[in-house]
Amino acid sequence: MNYRFAYRPNYDLYSATTWALFALVAVAVPAGIDLPAQPFQLAALFCTVLAIVRIAQAALHGRRLALLRGRPLWFLDLRSFRRILRRVGGDDLYLGHGFEWGQPQAQAAFDLAKRDVRSIVPARQGESLGAGWLHGIGADREQPLTLPLQHAMGHTLIVGTTGAGKTRLFDLLIAQRVLAGDTVIVIDPKGDRDLALNARRACALAGDETRFRFFHPAFPDRSVRIDPMANFTRPTELAARIAALIQTASGSDGDPFKAFSQMALTQVVTGLVGTGQQPNLLAIKRYLQGSVEELLDRLLSDHFRTIIADWDHRIPEDVRTARNVETRVAKLVAFYRRSIQSHPEWESPAVEELLQRYEHNREHYSKMIASLMPIMSQLTNGVMAELLSPRRIRSEDQGISDTQTMIRRAEVVYLGLDTLTDGFVGKAIGSILLADLTAVAGERYNYGVSNRPVSVFVDEAAEVVCDPFISLLNKGRGANVRLFLATQTLGDFAAKLGSTHKTRMVLGNCNNLVALRIKDGETQEYVAEALPRTRLQYLMHMQSASTLSDAPMLYSAGATQRLMEEDAPLVPPPYFGALPNLEFFAYLSGAKVVKGRLPILRWPEERP
Ligand SMILES: Nc1ncnc2c1ncn2[C@@H]1O[C@H](COP(=O)(O)OP(=O)(O)O)[C@@H](O)[C@H]1O
Ligand SMILES: [Mg+2]
Q1: Which of 269, 341, 417, 439 has its CA 20 to 30 A from that of 602?
Q2: Given pLDDT bands bounded at 50, 70 and 90, which one contains residue 607?
Q3: Of all atoms in ligand 1, which is nearest to the CA of residue 161?
Q4: Same domain membership, residue 585 and residue 462
């Protein structure tokens, strides 16, 4: 039987002491008694050698036991951080230090967990909550843990309760990607001051603090202005970007109000683009609720100007003399209809698009877009108008950005969404910005942007999960976008997405999983199930005794030991609940499980 409990008491120490005593006796005896000294000297030598061997073994075992006490928090200064990064190399992402967690580690943990660990090793005084011994199992073989960047394309899900270390892990990863020159986008629904601060510090570390961009609706003075409608190849794209914000009762795209709103948006955006106007949120809202005549007037005039030479002198009489814009448009439309009868090639898709709106019953129209208008208002009210529909006065306005600019300039953008103040608006901003990013990153060729990698970090990811988010997850690899999603529980996702099916779609897209301390039982189960399984051994003791009633003197007894084996999770659910702060289990590239701990980056003191 090769079953051995690795954390037995330190018997080697007893043995060492005994051999040492023998050695002493062997030295002492010949001095007192008149016997030949040589055999005793030889015996003393023999005992000393054995004592030394045992002392070495005892020291080794003692060290292993001491490691079970866990570690204090680990602060990493920037010089050591850079040294580690050099060692890790540019093709890998550094995730902290740790060791691979396989069957031997699972077995050791299983054996320890069966006993009272504190009886084997006294806990460190005043240490934080958590089972430090989990890391102690392999702490003597600690190495830098790495994730190949190629595999990070498969996205990474980070799960952990408040205070477990999600933000510290983000710090570590953000700093690396900033140093590597990626475009970095940090989406922070709840607004963690540290996250913004550390992203800025990372830019300073990389030697260019101007790469940092701060966006936060609650601080409009300091906030960069972002136009989420700046990039598109077709008007339908922008329409879909906004329509995705409409929450339908059924949660499906088949909702007639949503479908109508999307059509209405397409008409307006087409009109704006056709007349050479920037289709930002403010303009879209104005033409959605206002009359369509002004837009149609411009569009038709522009249209005729391009197809009819000297149009301004050949405007039909009834159009020229129309007293107001309504009559003028009515006459223009009539002229358009007449002329495409004789010149079918004069038909314009943009005009046709807008004519649908023009000819639609007004009352019905307002009823159908009733769920869209509040969204448009919220995105264009007060400070939002300037923040999300910025007017570009100079072409290179430093206070304005958009996804294309972010990628081109390798910006590091912190997006505070302030969902605590207004959940809906925060989520809406996150959604349209992600949709914009998906469009640009997915079709870089169309937008003429470099293939610079984009790393996106989303804290409290369940807060902003939405359809564009899901399509970014799907397209990520081809688009050279790496997503890192942090969440406290998986139930949050199911609650926001409305179905476990969608939740699995989202999470199934993450090839890498980092589990910090998890409080929620259901999440612990989910994570444990996502990891591989292993086989654990244990000894089964059986004792039996029997007497026969008709022959009470015939007594038999037996004791047997059997080595049993059972199938078990590599990391059972309760372990996730027992992790100390900043410690984690991770399942990397769907291939290996590691146990790790995170350093806290120690930034230099800053001048206020
Ligand atoms: N600079 C620091 N000094 C000491 N402890 C820290 C420091 N930064 C973070 N911690 C500890 O690390 C833990 C993880 O913090 P954090 O990453 O912000 O958690 P999360 O984002 O998961 O809520 C916290 O419990 C905190 O006590
Ligand atoms: Mg946090």
Answers
A1: 417
A2: low
A3: 22
A4: yes
Residues that place a CB less than 5 A from ion ligand 2: 166-167
Span from the CA of 215 to the centroid of ligand 1 (angstroms): 24
The rounded distance, in Å, linking the Cα atoms of 479 and 190 is: 27
**Interval 391-439: pLDDT, tens:** 766 555 568 888 888 999 999 999 999 877 778 888 889 889 988 998 8
Which pair of structure tokens corresponds to residue 418? 């302030």
Nearest-atom number in ligand 1 for the CA of 459 is 21
Q: Is the dihedral of CA 446, 447, 448, 453 positive or negative?
A: negative
Distance from C-alpha of 30 to C-alpha of 27, rounded to nearest angstrom: 7
Q: Are 414 and 500 members of one domain? A: yes
Please write the tens of the pLDDT for every residue from 446-486: 887 888 899 999 999 988 888 888 888 888 777 889 999 99
Q: Which domain holds residue 512?
A: 81-224+399-534+568-602
CA distance 509 to 527: 14
Candidates 531, 534, 593, 530; CA nearest to 566 is 534
State in Å: Cα 102 to ligand 2 middle.
29
Residue 550 lies in a domain: yes
| Ligand index nearest the alpha carbon of residue 160 | 1
Report the separation in Å between the CA atom of 432 and the middle of ligand 1, taken as the mean of its atom positions. 31
Residue to mutate (ligand 1; options 174, 581, 602; most atoms within 8 A of CB) = 581
- As a whole number of angstroms, the longest Cα–Cα distance in the chain is 143
Evaluate whether 463 touches 496 at the Cβ level (below 8 Å): yes
Q: Measured in angstroms, how far is the CA atom of residue 163 from the centroid of ligand 1?
A: 6
Which residues' Cβ are closer than 6 Å to ligand 1? 73, 160, 162-168, 581-582, 600
> Could you read off the pLDDT of 121-167 as tens digits, one per residue?
766 655 556 788 889 888 888 999 999 988 877 899 999 999 999 99
Total domains in the fold of the chain:
4
Local structure of residue 462 (DSSP, 8 states): G
What number does the ligand 1 atom closest to the CA of 581 have?
A: 13
In this structure, which ligand is nearest to the CA of 584? 1
Looking up tokens 């009470």 gives 552
